[in-house]
Amino acid sequence: MKNFALIGAAGFIAPRHMKAIKETGNNLVAALDKHDNVGILDSYFPNADFFTEFERFDRHLDKLKRKDDKIDYISICSPNYLHDSHIRYALRYGADAICEKPLVLNPWNLDALAEIEKETGKKVYTILQLRLHPSIIALREKIKNGPKDKIYDVDLTYITSRGNWYHSSWKGDVSKSGGVATNIGIHFFDMLIWIFGDVKENKVNQLTDETASGFLELSQARVNWRLSIDYNQIPHEIRSQGKRTFRSLMMEGEQIEFSDGFTDLHTKSYEGILKGQGFGIMETRPSIELAKAIRAEI
Hints:
Elements: E1 3-7, H1 14-23, E2 27-32, H2 41-44, E3 49-51, H3 54-66, E4 73-76, H4 83-93, E5 96-99, H5 107-120, E6 124-126, H6 134-144, E7 152-160, H7 165-168, H8 174-177, H9 179-183, H10 186-196, E8 199-207, E9 211-218, E10 221-228, H11 236-239, E11 245-251, E12 254-255, H12 265-274, H13 281-295
Parallel strand pairs: 1-2, 1-4, 2-3, 4-5, 5-6, 7-10
Antiparallel strand pairs: 7-11, 8-9, 9-10, 11-12
Helix pairs in contact: 1-12, 4-5, 5-13, 6-10, 10-13
């Protein structure tokens, strides 16, 4: 059984990490968040120590290390702009880091993290769960086994509506979240590059606080993409069903269905990481470079 700590315990994505830690048979020892609405801990690890101040969290982890009861992994679910700082803390503490996407906002931060990996001998892992989705794996195999010179026409649309709160939170601040293309798009860009190859051309058609769209030429695909948090952009037939999210991936006019099957992907990610087979720093670079290039159009 491995010991885990969690930074960012009150966030939206944190329960998926708690669930993954529990389902892989490990223990969450300590959690940190400046907000104290963390009752979800009772559902997974009621005995975990919780802190709202980093200094006390750090002191507690240091005390555990001195008692030879150190933390093996630190999971990071903090706001995007704090990821690299919290990763550095985990490595220098002597733990491997498991960080939500985007791993960092700027590509050059990856180089610094790679240096600290070498200095400490610890590893940085990230969550790229779409690479573990059965439909996405099947699509990648289809492309790999198909004609090497074929260029596919692809359309990606992802609309996940957000209320007014979004713009008042760190997510609405481009300097903290990276904007819509990074905050809700980074794993889709990673997926596209993973399936269809390197970026050859990147054209941004629209970039606002709520919507981003553009065109990508990849090694084996021409991709028209659109990302938005604007509820009004969701197709009427979807809204009429009371749904607030719409995702569509079309290839050569055919719908690739991947709406379901997300519930256990964080657990699958953790299973791979615990076997030493997780996604590391270098796997994240192409999508982070692309998101940065898109953001430069602001």
